[in-house]
Write a structure and sequence with these properties.
The complex is a heterotrimer of chains A (480), B (217) and C (283). With 217 residues, chain B is α/β, with parallel strands linked by helices. Helix content of chain B is 40%, strand content 25%. In chain B, helix 1 packs across helix 7 and helix 3 runs parallel beside helix 5. The N and C termini of chain B lie far apart (36 Å). The relative contact order of chain B is 0.20. Chain C has 14 helices and eight strands. The chains are: A alpha/beta (480), B alpha/beta (217), C alpha/beta (283).
Chain lengths: 480, 217, 283
């Protein structure tokens, strides 16, 4: 998927004045956000499990090459095939070559964020292969020709009305209104795809190195359909999705699902250890695991950003993010929205174009508090801000305007001397006082002119605290 | 962590399953209901068969496919459902023709499972913490059987209930060590559900819209 | 199947991320509470809201604590650090450390400034060992005002009273960087006669975020609007918060709406509540 990260401000502005989108985003607080909090409170030793989850991921990422090798060996031992894809082009080529060589006409897809990075549906189309998304939310946005709005609920921004239109267009005009009827309409449309598909492409929630297994978490059952009906199953995973042992799954599933939707567990958790056994009534004959890098090794190599690879893609950070809840998923311009998106997107697709993303945050810390594996997201946002201005090793990736640099140099100059600090404040007051009413300004000067678009700006005080304190002390000394 | 440690842990899990069988069954009843299963209790084999027949009657189930879980034979579910007018067949034994080759069979099996009113299974394990049924697809236990039909009825025996996910994965690890694990495992915790349309929860999107758990014991 | 040592947390000790600052460990504090503190008043309070500093001094003096004001202080460097200008931030931070290095507790009426020094100076100076050591020394002695009142002075009831309706906004850095929440809450609740109105979504950011307020003013405003709607819904006459940046942002927004709701710092609330206790008035 081509990044549109330069569009952040424009898309955010549009989103904030769209009542339909704001209504959809408003629901996130009482829904997903409060759901996670309730589930956490109801879970025994939640904080301990978060810490264990963090430790598992940190350990794994610090030994990623070892675990990926072990994973690949074990997948192959159990009859599966593994392909390491350095980038999305390599991943797409593998999948297309496989599909063409097996005469695949129809592919069903279960949710995979990596496949969004790959733009896989488009690639299938270009090669004359029908590819149908089966997660209802993904199906809806596929019909709309859009990209996901949220990690867990990709069509969260669509109103029921809009969904009616989309499904009706596909159903030759037959229009349903109620959510239940719309769901049944989609079910019927997708049922056909399930039965005729030659191949499925799924994501991977966890890949287990010790056993060569993958784990899929869904509520709808499309993950199970996709891994039971077609004869070929291809699973695409970001290379960071591996965990060492089967024993890690209890904790990981618990913290993932409760953080994602607030459920104790999703309707379905499926563990796949390879292709079907020969005597099974159903199941795929072939199992392929495509392990995708696509820039993740860049994150791995940067000790300040490596922690971003601990992410288990639960969506809790964006649910908690007061910025996401206003600007929505499309503002982030790529596959991953919200706080984690603001970090991995510029890191994977280019800091220069994505320079607004690390700044789209007040660093309030709600994301870190929500993260089931305790990723310190604000710290990485700050790290990226440092890279944007001066820290990135590649100067062409930096973007810091001359005006901005001057402002901070001036600030530094002012703050490096008490005298200049006081002088600056008193001078500002003197200049601005004539423009003020009751100690407030309706128009503020640069560099803070953006302030007064919606707020009044206060005049600096007539006297600094230092001056007041000094007077107070001398008064007392005088009294003695 | 050695091989012996894993085998040890697995032994302890099995002891817990047996010692606390009563408690765990109660806990499962509670959490399965929370997860969205319609939970039924049955003290005897006859009760199980009666409950299954009643479920079919109330839901208007006319055709059912079932797995080869031994508990289903034990409770004589076939005759109970037959008397209620339900066409119940063992999925494994559906045949395309005299040869019973799996290949030709798969087409027949596929069509049958997508057109049945209900799928009926036992349970390989259950998990109290989350209200979960655990199935290991294998010959006689089809993957689609508990997924494609709009209703799924599962019979869970006392003594097969694990306290939590962690114990399940101990046992999984043990079977993997012994080279005895199935090609896949399904954890089922309620009906198929989606909230993708304006957050309204709707069941039966791809999998069953209604799931029944008959607790036997 | 080869075995992995499971329960990774047990077998492989990983460094715990110390993103949440624990209450600083002050070895110099013995059994008796401190009787002298240095005041780090913060740049915003110094030049825009000096009355907040005065209230801090008043409240502490009423409790028998002498307050010292290191004269040369300006800023902790947070604005530049948050904007990504680390070298500029570092210069100002070094100056801060030079001014505050010493003995005894330092008190500041700002969660975000305390967090800057305690949580982020180590990041800023991670490859300068001498500065890092100095930063740790200073950080260990630094307390946010309400944290100091409750954890170090053991004060939970100042014996004050006010007849007023208030709502309390929980500033983000105070709440989540420092983990200070019970302390301001208990101080507010101890004030007799106070009509405390529960604030919906009190933990949600007001949208200030420092330079964010001017860098992304439309997003900042959208967040502010939600916050102010919730504040106005309480019907409280006064809004109380623990960080002056947030106060400036919310007060500016309320004024633009033509609202009479006052926005004050917790220190000002406590000052008002306890001013009847003593004849001493601030200037």
């Amino acid at each position: 998927m081509k990044p549109q990260t330069k569009e952040f401000r424009r898309v955010a502005a549009k989103t904030m004045v769209d009542p339909r989108l704001q209504k959809a985003l408003e629901g996130v607080y009482n829904g997903f956000y409060k759901g996670r909090i309730a589930a956490a409170e109801a879970t025994d030793r939640w904080e301990e499990q978060r810490e264990q989850g963090r430790a598992i991921k940190e350990h794994t990422i610090n030994h990623l090459d070892y675990y990926l090798e072990l994973l690949a060996d074990n997948v192959e031992k159990h009859g599966g095939r593994v392909f390491f894809a350095a980038d999305v082009d390599a991943a797409n080529k593998y999948v297309i070559d496989l599909a063409l060589s097996r005469s695949v006409k129809t592919v069903i897809k279960s949710k995979s964020m990596v496949s969004e990075e790959m733009g896989l549906n488009h690639v299938f189309e270009q090669n004359g292969i029908e590819s149908v998304e089966t997660d209802l939310g993904e199906y809806i946005i596929q019909l709309a020709g859009e990209t996901p709005y949220h990690l867990i609920a990709p069509a969260i921004h669509k109103s029921r009305d809009q969904v009616s239109d989309l499904l009706a267009a596909k159903a030759g005009g037959e229009r349903k209104e109620r959510a239940e009827d719309l769901t049944m309409q989609a079910r019927a449309q997708l049922r056909e795809a399930f039965q005729k598909a030659d191949m499925s492409v799924t994501g991977v929630n966890f890949a287990v190195a010790e056993s060569g297994s993958i784990v899929l978490v869904t509520n709808e059952g499309n993950g199970r359909m996709a891994t039971s009906a077609p004869r070929i199953h291809v699973a695409c995973m970001g290379m960071e999705k591996v965990v060492p042992s089967v024993q890690d799954l209890g904790t990981m599933l618990r913290i993932l699902i409760r953080s994602a939707t607030g459920q104790r567990i999703s309707s379905y958790v499926t563990m796949i250890n390879g292709p079907r056994a020969p005597e099974e009534e159903d199941g795929p004959e072939e199992f392929h695991l495509v392990i995708v890098d696509n820039g993740r090794s860049k994150l791995l190599a940067d000790p300040a950003l490596r922690e971003a690879l601990n992410c288990i893609r639960c969506g809790a950070c964006m649910n908690a993010c007061p910025v996401y809840r206003k600007v929505g998923g499309h503002s982030y311009g790529w596959v991953y929205p919200g706080p984690i998106g603001a970090i991995v997107t510029p890191a994977l697709t280019g800091l220069k174009q994505g320079k607004d993303l690390p700044y789209a945050s007040t660093l309030c810390g709600a994301c870190r508090e929500a993260c089931p594996v305790k990723i310190d997201l604000p710290r990485m946002l700050l790290e990226l801000r440092g890279q944007v201005t001066e820290g990135h090793p590649d100067p062409t990736q930096r973007s810091s305007s001359f005006a901005e640099r001057i402002v901070w140099k001036a600030w530094r100059f002012g703050m490096s001397s008490r005298g200049r600090f006081d002088l600056g404040a008193r001078a500002a007051r003197a200049v601005l006082k004539p423009l003020s009413v009751g100690g407030w300004l309706r128009r503020s000067p640069p560099p803070v002119s953006g302030w007064t678009s919606s707020r009044d700006f206060p005049l600096p005080a007539s006297e600094s605290f230092r001056a007041k304190f000094k007077r107070r002390q001398s008064k007392r000394a005088g009294k003695k | 962590m050695s091989r012996e440690d894993v085998l040890d842990q697995a032994q302890r899990v099995r002891s817990v399953m047996a010692e606390r069988a009563g408690d765990l069954l109660e806990s499962l009843a509670e959490h399965a209901a929370i997860a969205g299963w319609i939970v039924h209790r049955a003290g005897t084999a006859e009760n199980v068969a009666d409950v299954a027949a009643a479920i079919c009657r109330n839901a208007g189930i006319k055709t059912a496919l079932r797995s080869t879980h031994s508990v289903l034979e034990q409770v004589k579910i076939d005759s109970s459902l037959h008397s209620g007018g339900v066409d119940i067949r063992v999925m494994e034994r559906l045949q395309a023709g005299p040869g019973n080759e799996v290949e030709t069979n798969r087409g027949v099996l596929r069509r049958a499972v997508f057109s049945a009113d209900a799928g009926i299974t036992g349970g390989d394990y259950a998990i109290a913490e989350t209200g979960t049924l655990v199935l290991h697809p294998r010959r006689g236990v089809s993957r689609l059987l508990s997924l494609a039909p709009p209703r799924h009825i599962a019979v869970v025996e006392r003594g097969t209930v694990l306290p939590s996910l962690d114990e399940l994965f101990v046992l999984e690890r043990e079977s993997m060590l012994r080279g005895a694990s199935a090609a896949s495992m399904n954890l089922i915790s309620g009906p198929s559900r989606t909230g993708d349309i304006e957050g309204t929860i709707v069941t039966g999107i791809h999998g069953p819209l209604e799931v029944h758990m008959i607790l036997f014991g | 199947m080869p075995l992995i040592g499971h329960v990774i947390a047990q077998r492989y000790d990983s460094d715990t991320l110390s993103y949440m600052s624990a209450t600083p460990n002050n070895p110099s504090l013995g059994v008796s509470p401190p009787t002298r503190v240095s005041l780090f008043v913060t740049c915003l309070v110094d030049q825009f809201y000096p009355q907040v500093g005065e209230s801090v001094v008043n409240v502490l003096e009423r409790l028998g604590v002498d307050v010292d004001f290191p004269e040369g202080q300006t800023c902790c460097g947070q604005p530049a650090f948050n904007s990504g200008y680390r070298s500029d931030a570092r210069a100002v931070a070094k100056r801060f450390l030079g001014i505050f290095d010493g003995d005894g507790p330092i008190v500041t009426p700002s969660g975000s400034c305390a967090a800057m020094v305690r949580n982020f100076y180590p990041e800023l100076f991670h490859d300068e060992p001498a500065e890092l050591e100095r930063a740790n020394r200073v950080g260990e002695r630094l307390y946010e005002f309400s944290e100091f009142m409750v954890d170090m002075l053991g004060q939970t009831d100042l014996g004050g009273s006010i007849d007023e309706s208030v709502a309390y906004h929980r500033c983000c850095h105070l709440l989540r960087e420092l983990g200070v929440d019970a302390q301001p809450s208990s101080l507010i609740q101890s004030i007799r006669g106070l009509d405390i109105r529960p604030l919906e979504r009190s933990e949600v950011c007001c949208g200030f975020g420092g330079a964010f307020a001017v860098k992304m003013p439309d997003v900042s405003t959208a967040m502010l609007d939600e916050k102010l709607d919730n504040v106005l819904n309480t019907g409280a006459k006064t809004l109380v918060a623990g960080d002056t940046g947030c106060i400036m942002h919310m007060a500016g927004g309320l004024r633009r709406r033509g609202s009479n709701v006052q926005v004050i710092h917790l220190a000002e609330l406590l000052d008002r509540a306890t001013s009847a206790n003593t004849a001493e008035r601030s200037i």
